[in-house]
Amino acid sequence: MIKRVFTTFLCVCACTSITGCYPKRIVWSPDGQTAAVCSDHGLFFANAQGILGPRMYDRVVRAQWFPDSKHLAIVKDLYASTWNEVEEKIRSEDD
Predict the structure, then answer these.
(1) Rounded to two decimals, what is the model's pTM?
(2) DSSP output for the chain
(3) Which of 49, 59, 63, 86 is least enclosed by beta carbons within 10 angstroms?
(4) Angle at CA 34, nearest 5°, toward 79 and 43?
């Protein structure tokens, strides 16, 4: 009996730790009207019926809604070889 409980406990811990490692790919706004969908092809928005809109941004790896359901924070992958390239990419992203 103790062995079964211990095995179940380990399985639950393993599943919990594994699912915590993967970022959420679909994040619904707090009001439930819009979803931000992060895919390998970019960031898309979907409405409450699940209809996907056009691609909005490239290289988005994570998104999180603000409590007002109108603002979204995103994390993008940017690649650069030198500090000058980093400065250029940051400046171009601000435009």
Answers:
(1) 0.62
(2) -HHHHHHHHHHHHHHHHHHHHSPPSEEE-TTSSEEEEEETTEEEEEETT--B----BSSEEEEEE-TTSS-EEEEE----SSHHHHHHHHHHHH-
(3) 49
(4) 15
